[in-house]
Amino acid sequence: MDSEFTKDIAELLHLPRQKTLSFYIVFLTAVLPVWSVVPISWAFVAYSLLSASLWTYAWYGRALFAWALCEVFFSVYLYSLARLISGSSPHGPASLIELQSAFKRSLQAGLAFLPEDGSDEEGGVRPGSPTEDIIALDFDDPRAVDFRNYMRTWYGKVPWSSIRKHEVYAWLSWSIYNAPFPSLESLPEDEQEILRSAMSMLEKRAGIAIPDGSNPDSSPLLLTLDPINVAWRPFVWYAFIAVGNSVLRQYLKVKWRASIETGPHPIVFVHGLGLGLIQYNIFLTQLMEAIPDRPVLVPLHPHASQEIFHPRFLNPMNRHESADCLAGLLRELDWVEQHRADNGEKLDDEPKDGQRPTGVTMVSHSNGSFTHAWLLKAHPEMIYRSCFVDPVTFCSWEGDLCYNFIYRRCATGLELLMKYFVGMELGVANFLQRHFDWSANSLWFQDIPNACDPSKTKFFLGGKDDVVDAERVKRYLTSHGIRKGLWFDPHGRHGEALLSGGKGHKEILRWLREAS
C-alpha cells in the first residue's frame, strides 16, 4: 500500500506551521470519527471471530458485526483502488504544439504594462500580454521579481536562491512531457533542444540565469508523478453520498420538470469538488425558485462528487470528451444551434427572424470552471453568457491551486476540512494527481467571448479564498479591462458566494435574472 495512504492521519498532524484551535476541533469532531470507522471495524471483526463471541451476540450485535464486516471488505476494495491509481498517470503528454503555446503564454502573462485598475471604459481596446515578446528582463524589474516570487510556489515556496537548474529541468519535463527527468544528456536530442529553449525563455522572464547543479531541498511539485495522497473513507460514508445524491436527483427532476421547455438561454451549472447535489442542493433550489421560467442543467461528475460506485469514478472525462459530450447534449436538448457541418465547416449561426436567441448561460463553481473553460475553447458559440464563481482555471499556471490543495500542510480547521474531506478523497486525488492537464485547464482572458461586457460575463472572487490566490486572479482580470464584471469580496472565502443570504449570492441571482 502506498505510504501516503497508510499514514494520512500522521500527515495531517505533522505540521511545521502553528496549529489553530479550529484545527483540533475539526480533527477531533470530524476527521478522527470518520477515519477511525475502518480500524475499529477491523478490530471488532477480528475480536468477534477469534474469541468466538459472535455466536453469543443478540440480533443487534450481529447486525453491528455485519456492518463492520462490510467495512472490512470495502476497505480491501478501497485499498485495491488506491493501489490501482498509485502508478504513473495513464495519459501521455498533450499536443506538443499546444503545450509550447500554453507555456509561452504563461510566460507572457504579466509582461505587458497594463493598469490593474482596468480601463476607463468597459471593453475598451487594450494591449494583451500574448502580444509581448519574451525578452531578457533586468533582475530588479518588477515583472521579473513577481515572476520569481510566484514560480517559487512550484518548488514548495523555498527561497529562489536555493533553486537549481536540475530541479527546473525536472519541472519543465513534467509540464511538457508528463515524464520524470533523469538527466538532460539521457534524453533524445529533440527533447533536449525543447527543454533548453524552455529554460532560456524562463531565465529571460526571471531576469537571472539559474545556477547549475541540483538541490534536493528545492524539489519541484510534479503533480501527476508524485506519490498520490489518499485517505481512508468508510463504506457508510460513500453509501450515504450515493443514496443522498440519487434521492436529490430524482426530487429535483420531479419538482422542476415543468420548467424544462420555457425561458430563453437555459442555465448550465457545473459544480465543483465535494459531495455533488448534497453540497449544492440549497443553491440549486434557490436558483430555480428565483428563475422558474428557465430550464437548468446540472452535469454530474462522479469523480468530483465522491460517487465511488459509478463506472467512470476513476476514469474522468478529459477536455475533449467532456466538451464534446456536453455540446452534444445541448444540441440534443435544442438549446444551441448546429454551428458546424459534419465536415467541420462553420455554418451560419445567426438566429432567423422570429426565433429566440440560442446559447446557454453557463455558471461554474471552483473545479467546474475547468469544464467551463473546455467548452469555451471547443464551442464558444454555444455559451451566450458566462458566470465564474471562485474560478480555479485562471492563473492556474502559477501553482497556487496545486500547492494549496495537495501539498500545503494544513494548520486551520477549514484547511483540514478541505484537505481531508475533499483533497485526499480517492476520486478527487485521482483526478487532480493523475489526470491533471495544466495546459487544457488554463483559461486565458482572450478565450472568453465578451469578457469585458458585464451583462455577458461575470466573475466572483473571495479575497480569503484558501484554494487560489484570489488577489492574483483579480489582478489578472482587471489588468485586461474587467471592472464592472468583477464581484470581489475582500473577506469572502471559497464557496461563500453560493451561501444563502450573502451579498455574493444575491448578486449571482440578480445577474442571472437579467438575461434577455
Q: What's the gist of this structure?
A:
Keywords: Membrane, Transmembrane, Transmembrane helix. The protein is mainly alpha-helical and about 525 residues long.
The largest sheet, given as strand count, sense and whether it forms a barrel, is: 6 strands, parallel
- How far apart are the termini? 55 Å
**Counted beta strands:** 6
Overall residue-averaged pLDDT value: 86
Percent strand equals 5-15%
Uncertain runs: 1-7, 120-127
Measured as a percent range, the helix fraction is 40-55%
**Count of helical stretches:** 18
Large-scale geometry: globular
Content-based structural category: mainly alpha
The arrangement of helices and strands along the chain is HHHHHHHHHEHEHEHEHHHHEHEH
| Widest β-sheet, arrangement of strands | 2-1-3-4-5-6
Rg: 25 Å
